[in-house]
């Protein structure tokens, strides 16, 4: 997948655990874990906004575009 979620990196930088962030942003632990582990297929802007507000970061600190190398060689 060409979009990588670096939520775990930002959480480590801010020294906040999954349970605490889940409580702060009002997202279930299961859904936040899916996002953190790069298993999410989509994320709402409102969710991204809330996470960024709590972590004091920008969306680009959490989401990263990585070009899919397999498409280059086809």
TrEMBL record:
Pfam families: HTH_26. Residues 6-68 form the HTH cro/C1-type domain. Transmembrane segments: none annotated. InterPro entries: Cro/C1-type_HTH, Lambda_DNA-bd_dom_sf. This is Helix-turn-helix transcriptional regulator. The lineage of its organism: Bacteria, Bacillati, Bacillota, Clostridia, Eubacteriales.
């Amino acid at each position: 997948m060409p979009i990588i979620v670096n939520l775990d990196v930002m959480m480590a930088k801010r020294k906040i655990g999954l349970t605490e962030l889940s409580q702060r942003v009002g997202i279930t632990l299961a859904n936040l874990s899916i996002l953190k582990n790069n298993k999410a297929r989509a994320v709402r802007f409102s969710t991204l906004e809330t996470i960024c507000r709590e972590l004091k970061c920008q969306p680009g600190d959490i989401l990263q575009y990585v070009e899919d190398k397999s498409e280059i060689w086809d």
